[in-house]
Amino acid sequence: MTTTIVAWGFTGPALLTIGRAADELAREHGIRLIRVPLDEDLPPEADVVWVQGAMNPMLGDRVLAAAGERPLFSSPPVAQSLQIATAHGTGMGRPPRNPSPEARIALALRLVTPGRLVHAGRLSALVAGHTDVDPGPIPDDIPRGLFDTGDGPEHPVGTCGIIGTGLNVAAGDDGYLHTIAEALHRRGVDTRTWLGSPEDMPSDMKYRVDVWLNLTGFTACGNHGAPATDRGTALAEETDAQLLTPVPLQRGTLSDWRAEPGPVGLWPAAVSMNIAVPELEGATVPWVFMGRDADTNHLTPDDAAVARLAERVRRTIDLRRARPADRKVSVTIFGYDGDGTVGTAAQLDVFASLHALLGRLKDEGYTVEVPDTVEELTDILVGDGAGGARSQTSELARWRATDYAKVLGEHAARIDGPWGRLPGTVDTDGRDLIIRGARFGNVIVGVQPQFGDVSDPAELLMANDSTPSHSFAAYYLWLEHVFGHDVMLHFGTHGALEFMPGRQTGLAAADWPVLLTGSVPHHYLYVMANPGEGTIAKRRAAASLVTYLTPPLADAGLYGALDELAGLLDAHLSSGKGAGPVPQEIIDAALRADFTGEQAQDPAELRRELERVRRSPIALGLHTVGRPMEQRQTARSLELAATYLADTGEPERTAILADLEEKLRSNTELDALVRALAGGYTPPVVGGDPARRPDALPTGRNLHAIDPVSVPSASAIARGRKTAERLIAAHVDAHGSFPESVAIVLWGIDNIKTGGEGLAQAFALLGVEPVAGPRGRVDTFRILSPEELGRPRVDVVCTLSGVCRDVLPQPVQLLDEAVRAVAALDEPDELNPLAAHARAHAEEMDTTAVEAATRIFSAAAGSYGTGVNKLVQAGDWDGGEDLAEMYLTRMGHAWGTGADGADAGAVLRKVLGTVDATFQNVDSAETSIAGIDHYFEFLGGVTSAITQLRGDAPASFVSRSWAADINVGTLRDAMQLESRTRLLNPKWVEGQLAHGYAGVAQVRTRLENTFGMQATTGTVDGWVFDRAAENLLLDEDVRARMQRANPAAVNSMTNRLLEAADRGLWDADPDTLDRLEDIADQLDGVLEGIEEM
Question: Which residues does UniProt assign to the signal peptide (predicted)?
């Protein structure tokens, strides 16, 4: 009797194997094996069904559940293949001691090879009762060890260790291994191709490897069910060889991938398996290099990707073999002319760090000229020579536009549209393109051209065909084709290269980050506390990151009127008269310290607020690469770290803090940079702040994110639930009503650092609890009943940064599923405003309830940012309606299950019109709300949009997610604390001024971001601008010091305050404005060379 087996849903590499096994089963055993796609019905003659584990781990249990729901499955047994790990409980763990025949089928299908499929087929005949012959143990027909990919070059420049999988070889699908090896051989590189774990290579072979090229699409060691990232890391460290892990489209075709010119790129499951998990062992270069042929189903390499990959290997080997004196290094810094921010980076003294690096490279034997001092280096790079105004970036070279066009080729026409015909209008004299920077022997320090310097930034940002400018493209192509760099280093967090248009992940040759950087080995000096944006640099610019330390923390302390008030309060409260009338001198002192209303007449409240100011941790100054903290500088970080260890036993707690102190007081960042620039391996490290994530130290390692399928974590779910309840309570306290709808800002950086607290907050507001499977994958959720929840649900509008969208696709998809499940519930309107709003909006918009329930929004695929910050910084807006329109246009794209950035602008406008409050987590004590422009860009942007749509401003709240305690407060309160502890605090200002040009730039940036928050939310009190003018610009001593170091930044600060007054954002004293006008006139003269400094 013939046994009929249905292989249901098997795709990708299994198809070729099924064909070979089917032939043998039919020929030798009279067994019929057929394949049926998951979306087709099963034939009634099926005796046994095999179900392949889903490519997406989150779908595994659901596939089996769907199979079980079919009536047909009451008869045939079901066995699940676990070639691709799923959430199903059988996992890839230890098999049972005496498995049943059904269980033995599943064990055989764990790895899909011809021999194992034949074995599973014979077992299936036994289970179906069509034979009584037991086929015995599972055969091992997976090829392992050295695999012959042809003879290498006679005189190789080095060796590449290629890691392959025996599964493809067993299926007869190994042509790509030969193609890759041949490409390397043509470039003079010898190869050793190894199937299975490269740890098993003979030592004499393993230690000759210069570069590891992992073609498995997963980790170098372990398997899909049990990735052994620690072993992969150890292998790369032992051999000091970089680990390159390009992406194979095992279940996708090259034609489909090529047909997607600028959207998502890879689907979420591929991002997790092929990119996120390999990054945990320090893998880089996640380029798509092959996919399935649509006709033959064979893996077929992409010629351009293979060539680029082979070149990257060859150039890395050349880097390792070259004498330091011969290596040519490009170092790229960031910033803009005119506003004094050239060479700025998050929490880093760029010029001091550059000087330290140049000195170290000279010591290592590089051909490099090192300026005598940091000040001399600064003068060289920002233009005017010693004693000049430092108002423009130095010119390094000129490149004839016609020569540039020959290199760029057909892609020049893509730039002509948005930027004007070659050579454009930025950094050009009409004939040549100007390259900015300076040369120091074989090391060039170049300045990345700005991206948005056009007459109409709004038009550029909203364009679907956005590109870099000719100037931007010319800079990178000049480094490659004229200077001929051997290695590229981006210096500090962060530039614009990685945010250039193109696919989000799995980039192709025509995507701008790839087009501009090509095959050059690329490293990126990145702050340890920003794994979100750092991950974008890894994935889109093929960079290996090297982390640097954040600055030391200290208590903000008290000063001036605040200190005076504290003294009076101490005397009053210690005199025993605290219960009596408040002395007028205290009220007057409180007013001088900018406390108003009832707060000014409440000594206890004043004292609490002063203590909050005094104890707030602030970053002192900037970090210099290679410089460890002194012992006295570690105290506040250790104290903050101790708050996270409250539940840890004393011996362990003491050991953790001692280890943290030791790591803060040691620094190997320069060692790591030297090793990276010489072609060595940089081991991986999790991202985070020192106090909360001590395991992010030591620095000098390759920053990575987390596997998105593990988000949100159990601790994040618990904290997220508490924060959600605090947010609801804060709204009730402030406004006397329950918030029906909240717009929450979700970033990648804080969700990665906290394990997904922001996402967990969104789930909690909905009344939904994420649920992790037995393998730790968060793949489903549980909707809490109204009785269990104990309150109404909240309609949550989630506005995502592009980083969150790209780096955490699975939890974003799960959140979207939760939103739609809640919207479909049959509950009273007052208990489920999401469902009520979706029904009402569907009727008003004449659309479906499913579309009206869209609640997850971000920028279009391959696009980043809201554009609001660009408008504010350029001054190119007339009123709040312009900022709102920019936000709504940029962010009107739906994300989640199958959305992939679809246009949803009309839905976004509708749902934001019903929002009661906006909310965001503040992820870092070191940076804080006004430290970067992204807070007013996202939180400010959505608040501005809601204000325009509603006609009045929503409530705005923030939570300090970096703190151990759960907290929620108003944005206005947060901006008051922010200003008192940093911008207006002499302790913070002096810490910045110690860094000269770079420090003044940071003061300017914080004032501009404060202005941006006022422009978008109106939550900055007028006294903040009063004191900023008084303390920073009208104080002649402070202004003179800043002006000597960075006059362009001082001029920018002056003009920004004048703009605030002109726009009605600040009700300034007329005398103050007159004095600011005089300062602006004087500074204009300095910058134009008319007046002396």
Answer: none
